[in-house]
Amino acid sequence: MRDRPGAAEGDFRLDRARVVDVRSGKIVEGSVVIEGGRIRRIGAPGSEDVPVVDAARRYVVPGLINCHSHLSIVFPFSEWDEHEPAAMTALRCYRRGIDALRSGVTTLRTVSEMHRADMALRAMIEQGWVEGPRIYSGGCGICVTGGHGAGFGVLIADGAEAFRAEARREIAAGADHLKIFLTGGIAQRNETFDEPQMTVEEIAAVVSVARSKNTYVTAHAGGGRALREALDAGLACCEHGYFLDSGDVRALVDHDAWLVPTLAVTRSSEWMERNRFAAWTIDKSLEAGDDHLASARRAAEAGVRLLVGTDLPPGETDRGSNITVREVEYLVDAGLSPLEALRGATLYPAELMRAEDRIGSLEPGCFADMLLVDSNPLEDVRALRDVRMVIKGGKIVWQEKT
After folding, report:
1. 12-61+361-399: CATH homologous superfamily?
2. pLDDT of 1
């Protein structure tokens, strides 16, 4: 059932297209033939007896993938109620999913949602009841008593066997991957970014469950000893990495791990003020900004693969531009080329989620998830700010009014 194209896809040919090949970094001019929600072929115009949509020589980019999403989160944090009815949580997730899709984000990786609302939304989308992005679900994250996720609808465990049991429950419920919390972060006032909050044994227990089901573990981690121990135990991906020193970066490289820096978290003051964050939260966020960017730059220079994830709702805006697109731009600020930054929002997340044969690139056999923009994002990723059309599973889900 996973990754159904959707109930309303159609067959058509997208003519006069400039297709961005994120694997080669080249532009392929011609047509994109879409059949059954997937890409049938890309190349010279053919004679297919299908409706034709004129791309008007716009650039066709793979649908964006946001790798760090919390659709259920409430801002400001002081108004969060982890005991709210599950129906309220699901409706909030649905609204944010629609916003993300219409901005060009056709796939989300969720990393801890209250009431497992992401799984419910995923099922509704796959069954065609509602419209929304593809969802790769982390279900509920798992943290220790009093840990970073406590109070935000996560599962609480203490000790290796308790973590193992909760991890098994999340996999059984339908989680595509598992999320743990290794260190402190911004949301809690008295936490630090490098304080260890889990034991090696607890981490290893969760990793063993994930590996038994051929999936992986990702973790909230600021950096330091906690991150290095987790990588030794089998952690596949680091979320945030606010303070990564040379040893942390070397460990990421040695373990071939991924980094989702979520740079928007420490440079979106206008968005935070609009959402009524406490002054101390904004200050803590912005104070970490320079070190956060330097950490991402250090990782990029060492060859760590950086992925786009925002932590902020993926369809919202900051200073007039979509948050997810802003994150692509921040990866360029961290030293990535426009192509590498675009790969961080398309090809690389698909590889992490083991879905590169279905999403993340525009190739025959992949789902027809794509967006149209006026200028070449391989020259300037700010081209993604002005999306003219969004297609998911061969269905035009949004287009600019003319």
Report:
1. Urease, subunit C, domain 1 (2.30.40.10)
2. 33
